[in-house]
């Protein structure tokens, strides 16, 4: 079955950095685009970053452009989210996501808290 396991969250001061990882299994990772989402308290989940199957194409929500970088290692079935210049408003649970056989999958999420 599809499994997505996020790691790397935690507490960081504003202006700091974090790198999130997502280990994927149960589907053809190398042929799948991947996404990072986040959900802040009392807010809807939002798409933060997208990466194509080969990693050539990346897209970001405007609020993180220039600060976050999505990447992938297809040899390790892992997708990353490098987050720099973090702001308190980046505080959220971060999820990686994949769409496979017309269904959407997310991991359990990893909490990122940015203190001011």
What do these coordinates show?
The chain is mainly beta and 116 residues long. Helix content is 0%, strand content 54%. Strands 2, 4, 5, 6, 9, 10 and 11 form a seven-stranded mixed sheet that branches. 29% of the residues are buried.
Q: Which segments are poorly predicted (pLDDT under 50) over 5 or more consecutive residues? A: none
Helix content: under 10%
Number of strands: 11
Helix-strand pattern:
EEEEEEEEEEE
Gap from first CA to last CA = 40 Å
Percentage of residues in DSSP E strands? over 45%
Which structural class should the secondary elements be placed in?
mainly beta
Gyration radius over CA: 13 Å
- Estimate the mean pLDDT confidence: 97
The largest sheet is: 7 strands, mixed
Number of helices: 0
Identify the overall geometry: globular
List the helices and strands and how they pair.
Layout: E1 3-7, E2 10-13, E3 18-25, E4 34-39, E5 46-51, E6 58-60, E7 68-73, E8 78-83, E9 92-100, E10 103-106, E11 110-115
Features:
0% helix, 116 residues, single chain, seven-stranded mixed sheet, mainly beta
């Amino acid at each position: 079955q599809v499994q997505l396991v996020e790691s790397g969250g935690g507490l960081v001061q504003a202006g700091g950095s974090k790198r999130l990882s997502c280990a994927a299994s149960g589907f053809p990772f190398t042929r799948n685009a991947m996404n990072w989402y986040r959900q802040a308290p009392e807010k809807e989940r939002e798409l933060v970053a997208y990466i194509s199957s080969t990693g050539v194409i990346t897209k970001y929500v405007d609020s993180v452009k220039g600060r976050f970088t999505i990447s992938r290692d297809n040899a390790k079935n892992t997708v990353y989210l490098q987050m720099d210049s973090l702001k308190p408003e980046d505080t959220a649970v971060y999820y990686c996501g994949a769409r496979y056989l017309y269904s959407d999958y997310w991991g359990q999420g990893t909490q990122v808290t940015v203190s001011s």
